[in-house]
């Protein structure tokens, strides 16, 4: 069920074209309710409920944000006391690589809620707590299932009325500059502040999968967006400042460097062989068998033959799918099951000697076809899951070769990574 109010439009029409927006699956129509509203400063906010009381409409969510926040794009006060327009983030292009580099100085002021240098006394991702002295949380209600909202400190944002014209640093055409006119969203997986994504039920992760699909479809409609990138950072070693179980969605106004490189190779492979490179990689891994670590009826998980990280797993759909919103109900359920299993086994991967494993720091990065690039048809959806940890008490640091020349040196072999996963559970999980 989709609940709507005047503040936002959620559901597009039933056409299958790319920019028609979100169409819920049969399961979502019956078991998930999306309720849009806006926060006090004008940012979009969505409750994504799987609780039957909210899905049925017996209970409703709090739609009013009680905070007294200025409009997000209000004029700012400069250091000299003058009033200046909201400083839209910009991006500059590196002439040596062609990479666009967003520059968002406002993020320096975002709150950090744990560890040295903490700047907030509460968790802005938690549900509201009546009577709590900390009242700057982003969720208006006192409970939720899954929520998605625009980031308060975005590295990319589309500012109303801002010019999108190209100009140049110091007037020199070596250094093009444009507004970083993208979008950044936060997705909270669960209201439990101290929970871990690995501990979430498959049913809750199924709701998270629906949220990824919903936002992929809706964000793809926004003018100027070229790539929708859902991802999850987990663990202090990764740089996470909020421990609450959550992920993010970056919508880039350009095709980012890693995707650009992958598109170059997938397109060249298609022109040479008329095959899909990502599909053929998956099939070759299935045939080789040694590096397959999990599979069910819809998905295959394997350690890639040229893995970079000391723990790395790629997850691919059996069927050719371009983006998360193209997944059918069975594929979404099977993904929730596989993701749950992957997180649990990831936490057991490194043994500290007590047999309990550890809370693994990781990045889970969704690579999906770009929104407009004509090479998108020869791409294929895939998840790249990896960790910086190379032992129970060691981190892989990106030193001279990796950081200076992007020339990776692995500390292990893909076969050893896969062998460890084989010790943690069966390959066939359904």
Task: Provide a descriptive summary of the structure in words.
The protein is an alpha+beta fold and 430 residues long. The protein has 2 domains: 77-256, HIT family, subunit A, CATH 3.30.428.10; 258-424, HIT-like (HIT family, subunit A, 2-Layer Sandwich). It contains 8 helices and 19 strands. The protein has an 11-stranded antiparallel β-sheet with strand order 1-2-7-10-12-11-16-17-15-14-13, with helices on both faces. The chain has a 4-stranded antiparallel β-sheet with strand order 6-5-9-8, with no helix packed on it. Strand 8 (167-168) and strand 9 (176-179) form a beta hairpin. Helix 3 packs across helix 6 (329-348). The chain starts with 25 loop residues before the first helix and ends in a 6-residue tail after the last helix. Its EC number is 2.7.7.12. Belongs to the galactose-1-phosphate uridylyltransferase type 1 family. The active site is at 246 (tele-ump-histidine intermediate). Residues 1-22, 115-138 are annotated as: Disordered.
């Amino acid at each position: 069920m989709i609940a709507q109010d005047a503040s936002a439009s959620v559901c597009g029409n039933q056409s299958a074209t790319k920019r028609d927006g979100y169409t819920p699956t049969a399961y979502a129509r019956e078991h998930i309710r999306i309720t849009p509203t806006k926060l006090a400063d004008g940012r979009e906010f969505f409750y994504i409920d799987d609780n039957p009381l909210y899905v049925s409409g017996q209970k409703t969510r709090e739609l009013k944000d009680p905070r007294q926040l200025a409009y997000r794009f209000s004029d700012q006060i400069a250091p000299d006391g003058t009033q200046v327009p909201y400083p839209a983030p910009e991006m500059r292009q590196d002439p040596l690589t062609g990479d666009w580099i967003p520059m968002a100085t406002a993020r320096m002021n975002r709150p950090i809620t744990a560890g040295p240098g903490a700047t907030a006394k509460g968790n802005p991702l938690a549900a509201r707590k009546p009577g709590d002295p900390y009242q700057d949380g982003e969720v208006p209600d006192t409970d939720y299932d899954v929520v998605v909202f625009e980031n308060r400190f975005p590295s990319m944002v589309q500012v109303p009325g801002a010019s999108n014209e190209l100009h140049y640093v110091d007037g020199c055409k070596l250094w093009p500059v444009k507004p970083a006119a993208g979008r950044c969203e936060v997705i909270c997986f669960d209201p439990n502040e101290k929970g871990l994504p690995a501990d979430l039920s498959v049913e809750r992760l199924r709701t998270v999968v629906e949220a990824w699909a919903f936002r992929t479809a809706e964000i793809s409609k926004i003018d100027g967006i070229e790539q929708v990138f859902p991802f999850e950072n987990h663990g202090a070693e990764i740089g996470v400042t909020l421990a609450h179980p959550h992920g993010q969605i970056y919508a880039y106004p350009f095709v980012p460097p890693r995707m650009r490189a992958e598109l170059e190779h997938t397109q060249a492979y298609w022109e040479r062989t008329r095959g899909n490179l990502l599909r053929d990689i998956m099939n070759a891994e299935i045939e080789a068998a040694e590096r397959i670590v999990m599979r069910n009826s819809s998905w295959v998980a394997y350690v890639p033959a040229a893995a970079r990280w000391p723990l790395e797993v790629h997850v691919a759909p059996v069927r050719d799918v371009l983006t998360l919103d193209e997944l059918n109900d069975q594929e979404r359920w099977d993904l929730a099951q596989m993701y749950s299993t992957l997180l649990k086994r990831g936490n057991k991967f490194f043994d500290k000697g007590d047999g309990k494993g550890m809370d693994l720091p990781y990045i889970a990065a969704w690579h999906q076809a770009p929104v407009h690039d004509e090479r998108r048809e020869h791409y294929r959806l895939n998840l790249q899951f990896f960790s910086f940890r190379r032992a129970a008490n060691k981190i892989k640091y990106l030193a001279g070769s990796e950081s200076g020349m992007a020339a990776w040196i692995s500390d292990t072999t893909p076969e050893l990574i896969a062998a460890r996963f084989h010790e943690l559970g069966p390959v066939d999980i359904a």
